[in-house]
Fold:
Amino acid sequence: MSADAEGFDRKVPLPPELKIAHIRRAIDYIERETSELIEVYFEQANVFSGLVGIFGVRALHALSPYKKHKHPDVAQQRFPDLSLGGKLSPPPEQALESKGTTRPWALQSHYNHAGWYIVWRYLVDPTGMIKAGKKVVIWRVDVAFLKEDDWKYEGSNAAEGRGGRTHTFGVKLPASRFSSAIAYRHPKIILRQSRPTLANGEE
Structure:
């Protein structure tokens, strides 16, 4: 593992012009903002994961060269969440999608577009002990360029006739795909039985 003392691995490829400094500051922003909304997690965890992704978009829009489209109605409806310079319909190499999840490897999406994906893998710590005062901890950040054939169709999870987003795609062999895409890993957290937990001696 080539990560530094903070847990950042500078050898992991990143989208053009995105820097480790942008990711570091985005982690701080996401943890701070979502810790104020922790009750949502206990009511509807999947909605909270969506909020983590949204705060990731906000942070990178403010801190990095990756911007939301300037027209809000377009930005809400189109892939990607962000693009280099805020371009409409950017090439995949300049497209960046922000996802939040508690899963250690899996990633799901409602489409299978090619582009860069930044995945904020988080845990909830109501005690605020892992990071002082933070009830949400980003314990790992994966950054990967995914092609259309990296995804597999997983079917519909909505009742027929009720509308809404019905189609779901998942990354094939996610542990294999993301193991070389870990841009950040909290140095005190390890996976134990597929769950993030404090390493021995830190509890």
